[in-house]
Specification:
alpha+beta; 6 helices; Collagenase (Catalytic Domain); five-stranded mixed β-sheet
Length: 382
């Protein structure tokens, strides 16, 4: 089953910067000093495209050896369901040791600072992120101490903050429309373009306290990167002829196109399409599986923030005409929980498995005879 990353449309409040300057100053200096799609705000959409990454596949490598635990924390943060990468449909690949021959991509090293050397895609070489893995890292960033974060939580928060800079986003409190109530002085490189209103809850805002991406952070990354990333494809035997087909899902509009495989397994173009707004919110992802056991793959839309689900069962022709069943149960709705599809009990109905990568916990919701999901049937806290 396919677990596609998604691209969403919505407004954000990020600054984009085209300059090759550091994103954050020395940390010691810093201490001294729903199913919703918003309207396109094209009149205020001014941004510099030259530093946005032009390829959704971005290589990531480590410049420092050892520290396996801290590296795992960073990877979990940057690949989580509420991460920049998940929202922008960016694939972070590799994660091994740097070879020294890299000419692009993102390199991460541990040091005594929290800084990114370039805002966005560096035309002169890799974009480098430095993170502080020291035992006292919480004291090096005031947001960690003010929120009582553990060392793991602090490292994950800082990784998300700095990776925002690596995607070309400047500090939110540097914006020219920052209200007087935010008294932090500008830090690092200013952007030259704003998109949407000032976001008090952005992880890039030093006047913010929540240590995670805001909804506008995620939606903004998705909107600003939607031109340069691939669509979200889903595969499955939608018409039940024994051949897997291709479904292209418009993650901004909810539109769908299906190219049914020919008898020889070839794809010759769109055979069916539907221009309906379905599963196109910033917090929703599309999955496929034969949930009702009729031999045809169905579509499930999962809201990973609320845990809600909507199922569109394929009709006899392998078409999708809208929601047939839905649930408002909050299930698999916490980061870093991830949803997986599979027929785990072998009854011919695909089931849902929720895995928490931080704790290892697993929950399974077995599809009933009607292809519905009513809650956890089995769990393991290991």
């Amino acid at each position: 089953m396919t677990n596609p990353q998604r691209v969403f449309i919505a407004l954000t409040s990020l600054l984009l910067a085209p300059c090759a300057l550091t994103a954050c100053d020395d940390p010691s200096e810093l201490e001294a000093s729903d199913e919703t799609t918003t309207d396109d705000d094209s009149e205020r959409l001014y941004y510099v495209s030259s530093t946005l990454w032009d390829d959704p596949d971005i290589s990531v490598c480590w410049l420092t050896s050892g520290q396996a635990t801290e590296k795992r924390w960073v990877r979990e943060a940057l690949l989580g369901q509420r991460s920049w990468a998940a929202s922008a449909n960016i694939n972070l690949l590799g994660w091994g040791s740097c070879t020294g021959s890299e000419t692009e991509g993102i390199q991460i090293r541990s040091g005594d600072q929290m800084v990114t050397n370039f805002l966005g895609q560096n035309p002169a070489g890799p974009t480098v992120i430095e993170l502080d893995f020291s035992a006292n890292t919480q004291q090096h960033w005031t947001r960690c101490t003010s929120n009582g974060l553990t060392r793991e939580e602090c490292i994950k928060t800082v990784a998300l903050h700095e990776f925002g800079h690596a995607l070309a986003f400047s500090h939110e409190h540097n914006r020219p429309d920052t209200p007087a109530s935010c008294t932090w002085s500008p830090q690092g490189t200013n952007g030259d373009s704003t998109y949407g209103e000032w976001d008090a809850d952005s992880i890039l805002n030093y006047c913010n306290t929540p240590p995670q991406l805001s909804g506008l952070d995620r939606r903004g990354a998705a909107r600003l990167y939607h031109q340069s990333v691939r669509p979200a494809p889903v595969s499955g035997d939608f018409n039940g002829d024994g051949h897997d087909d291709l479904l292209c899902h418009g993650t901004e509009t909810g539109f769908k196109w299906i190219d049914y495989a020919s008898a020889s397994g070839q794809f010759l173009g769109t055979d069916w399409s539907r221009d309906a707004n379905w599963c196109n919110s910033a917090t929703q992802r599309l999955f496929s599986g034969d949930f009702d056991g009729d031999g045809r793959e169905d579509l499930l839309c999962h809201d990973f923030q609320a845990g809600f689900k909507w199922v569109d069962y394929a009709n006899a022709s392998g078409q999708f005409l809208g929601t047939n069943w839905s649930t408002g149960n909050a299930w698999c709705d916490n980061d870093p929980q991830q949803l997986f599809i599979g027929d785990f009990d072998g009854d011919g109905h695909d089931d849902l498995l929720c895995h928490d990568s931080a704790t290892g916990y697993k929950w399974i919701d077995y599809a009933n005879a009607s292809g519905q999901f009513l809650g956890t049937n089995w769990l393991r806290d290991a």
